[in-house]
Amino acid sequence: MTQPSKAAPNDTGAAPHLEVIPLGGMGEIGKNITAYRYEDEIMIVDAGLAFPESHQMGIDLIIPRIDYLQQNAGLIKGMILTHGHEDHIGGLPYILPRLPRIPVYGASLTLGLVREKLSEFGIKDGEVDLREVQLTDRVRIGTHFQVEFIRMTHSIPDNAGYILTTPAGVVLHTGDFKLDEEPSDGKTSDLARIEQAGKDGVLLLLSDSTNAERPGRTVSEAEVARNLETLIAGIKGRVFMTTFASNVHRIQNVINIAHRQSRRVVMEGRSMLKYAQVSQQLGYMELPEPFLASDEVGGLQDQQVLYVCTGSQGQPMSVLSRLAFGNHAKIALRRGDSVILSSNPIPGNEEAVNLVINRLYEIGVDVYYPPTYRVHASGHGSQEELATVLNLARPKYFLPWHGEPRHQINHARLAQTLPRPPKRTLIAKNGDVIRLSQDEFKVTGTVPAGAVYVDGLGVGDIGDDVLLDRVNMSQEGVLIMTAVLHPTPHVEVVSRGFVRANRELDGQIRKVALEAVEQGLREKKRLEDVRDDMYGAVRRFVRKATGRNPVLIPLIVD
Amino acid sequence: MTQPSKAAPNDTGAAPHLEVIPLGGMGEIGKNITAYRYEDEIMIVDAGLAFPESHQMGIDLIIPRIDYLQQNAGLIKGMILTHGHEDHIGGLPYILPRLPRIPVYGASLTLGLVREKLSEFGIKDGEVDLREVQLTDRVRIGTHFQVEFIRMTHSIPDNAGYILTTPAGVVLHTGDFKLDEEPSDGKTSDLARIEQAGKDGVLLLLSDSTNAERPGRTVSEAEVARNLETLIAGIKGRVFMTTFASNVHRIQNVINIAHRQSRRVVMEGRSMLKYAQVSQQLGYMELPEPFLASDEVGGLQDQQVLYVCTGSQGQPMSVLSRLAFGNHAKIALRRGDSVILSSNPIPGNEEAVNLVINRLYEIGVDVYYPPTYRVHASGHGSQEELATVLNLARPKYFLPWHGEPRHQINHARLAQTLPRPPKRTLIAKNGDVIRLSQDEFKVTGTVPAGAVYVDGLGVGDIGDDVLLDRVNMSQEGVLIMTAVLHPTPHVEVVSRGFVRANRELDGQIRKVALEAVEQGLREKKRLEDVRDDMYGAVRRFVRKATGRNPVLIPLIVD
């Protein structure tokens, strides 16, 4: 399974080649991390996390496997970060300590968020080598990699793509992007640089596939701001607005709208406050007036207040959920209030968000959300934007990235419809080793890749076997039979999540179990076999009596 | 909590009044059942089931509580069924046996599906009193209820609304509906009858709120058929199409399209075959050529076959899922095949459907689904259609029905924008007793209502406490400590779904537990207290050591 860790010199007489090795974010949306290897040098791009799917029960978050990087630790020359979203930097506190100390390059806000995150994990500034770049800077990593950061618009400031120049050729990676023509900070994507790179020759393009199934263009952040301004101007009572805490421009726009409409802003929720603090410190957020605390609004009328709060994904402990369920310590919603969800549910969160929305309606609050109200825009470009990048970059080879297979394949098909399609496109997945030179572009092998589950304090101590037990217990519950052999054999039965306390059924199960035990003892079987007999007898009985298959745990006390 | 079961005669001198008592389907989408009571007579409309939400783990399905009906069993005069969908008839096998034998009225296909369902549960024809009606028939139920069935278009044939005439006034109930102007059987909704009822005077309208948030009109079934025909005409290889098995018209249209395009139809999946069989027997489905079995297509070319199969919701055991995961016994998908999902995921099924779609892409199959391809239409009318019914019926009172609070409230708001809004609208919920006369329209009390969980063979033996255990175990696993007191105290530890086998941690837990037990014994505590001490000590230790809270089960063997 594992790639030999020796260097792979270009000693075959072939053209110099580069390896692209996605370890996360290829064939999925989440936990982005990509390695590039040229001869005996490796550089890394991003180190993100993913949130669990519903069958990954009880998991807090997921980080990518980095066996390949650990096995080749001595070759790693540096890392670059494209932007400050969790799926690009959230894995750093777990991953950086497992790698040698390497320079980590990123823009100002990105590194500010990284510092905040590392300090939460008790990792001190001196333990990592963070190096700030401007989004036009070029940095050299090792002897073979030259990285030029380029500005791309997205749903967080300081978002970067990059042009990677290697002896094997030039790679253009968009990073996450949309081509917002009216970004809130006025800084549009650097299409001129992409066009120039295209003219100079791009060997490989990696481009964001998230919205490859959506026709047209993604709505601009300015359009969202205009819609929010019109909406809020028409609201008489208190306004509660939620969005992704990392959407600094959206929140800045709402702060400005509130100011223009003579509303003071109250910010509620830990992650909201954290992003706001880092953004202000680094000059990415400006407050016309200071935030008020929720206990400072007493003298204000309802139409003079606007709350920005966490909870756009229906998270149970978020401010909006606590407001909706009436268990916020300081604030109670009431008829006449308005709630704006400036967000869409991320796949998997639909039920949770729907529950919150229904509770808000039941309180009598006015609730505004997409698609009825156009108060959100994706951070990822749609087909027209993807086509623009492909047309400008004119890559020889193409890797649709940052997407599930459906997104990657539709991105690949889109590329084929263009006037100058790539010569070759690969639908890659995590762990693929993609070899790249002027003459070839193919998967030549695989390295270990996949998910490491983080749960509580544990990292990697939960595997798929443990998750399977959780799934089984969630479906049918658990039933524990304890056979005590002395002085007289008897069996105790305890269950959780199986059926309501039912003495008759418990008694029957005890009887079936005891018969199996007594027979085993009479036949002088080994205790393991007696235990297995008890297990089998109870399983058959329970299945027949209840139609169910709880997780059975047989214990024998000798 | 419970409503007294005595009759509620109109002896107060007030105008005669009717009670509407929704027991399911009000404030939710699913398990529809509504009772009407006039003096000492009750009639019932529908008896559906609901599918569990994700937190209702391991539950097979949910039926409504019918305590009110059981307590007033002697007053029940009859039942009517609006159509054959599971959320309207799926509860019958559980509910009918718990009620006295009453006449059950429904249209031909509806009763055909009911018979099929009852026979699966071993309930014989003679045990129930099913009475077939045409969709213009009037029937009398008891002495006070006159029901006139009216045709409404929906995503299943023979779908009915009704006009209920009582001494207290006239109720118009749309049932589930859209106003399809080009229904596949040519039979449009009976708007003329609704208009006439409006002129004659409708006291109360109950109308379908499902799509109250959607502007415009819902796409016609004919439009879907045209889009499917164009799409399939362009496909060269095998076609696999899935939709809801109950969407008889959609399936008939696809059968006709296949015939016109010289494709033979193979039908795969138990529920598909069941609906097709009942529909054919009753004349709702006609086959230009017989279905082929999947082992009869050997001599045909790829473009001569079309499979209709189950799996539109990503159900793991469905035909499409087995095809996607490569474990169907007879059929293997391959590059060049096309799969059409003529359906949208029902809320909660998004992840499962997405998984299947991605697997299909990975196989190299061409996959067609909404919204990119307009190959599905909802069975429920959008705002324009809802407005049309409100405008024609001109009800004095309005109960937005068949929706969650967000749908009900938006339906209510829509009604207020119309030229002749209802005099009063109530946002009701299951269990409300809604009193209705010419002079009043209000909630006067509540009766028990809610969910009965069906799991395996058990009906109602799982409560929210059991579900909470399942949720907890799914998040953190379970850990069982067995303290054996004789001859020398020792503790055994077993866990499931907690962490990977970890001897060191197990040893520490055993030590912590044993110390608590030994101290308790030294202090001569009662065994219950010793057990609680062990529980507390282990809980504290595990939380600190792992950051987790597994479900702990302490056992003491004396």
Could you provide a short overview of the structure?
Chains A, B: One of its GO terms (molecular function) is zinc ion binding. 2 copies of one chain form a homodimer. By secondary structure, chain A is α/β, with parallel strands linked by helices.
**Count of helical segments of chain A?**
15
Mean pLDDT of chain A: 94
CATH topology of the largest domain in chain A: Metallo-beta-lactamase, Chain A
The CATH class assignment of the largest domain in chain A is: Alpha Beta
- CATH second-level architecture of the largest domain in chain A: 4-Layer Sandwich
Strand order of the largest sheet of chain A: 7-6-5-3-2-1-20-21
- Specify the helix fraction band of chain A: 25-40%
Oligomer: homodimer
Classify the beta-strand content of chain A into a percent band. Answer: 15-25%
Over all CA atoms, what is the radius of gyration of chain A? 28 Å
Number of strand segments of chain A: 26
Q: Greatest interface and its residue counts?
A: A-B, 61 and 60 residues
Our count of domains of chain A comes out at 3
Cα distance, first to last residue of chain A? 44 Å
Instruction: Classify the secondary structure makeup of chain A into a structural class.
Output: alpha/beta
Q: Which runs of chain A of at least 5 residues are low in confidence (pLDDT < 50)?
A: 1-11
The global form of chain A is globular
Keywords (chains A, B): Calcium, Cytoplasm, Endonuclease, Exonuclease, Hydrolase, Metal-binding, Nuclease, RNA-binding, rRNA processing, Zinc
Family (chains A, B): Belongs to the metallo-beta-lactamase superfamily. RNA-metabolizing metallo-beta-lactamase-like family. Bacterial RNase J subfamily.
Protein name (chains A, B): Ribonuclease J
Organism (chains A, B): Deinococcus indicus
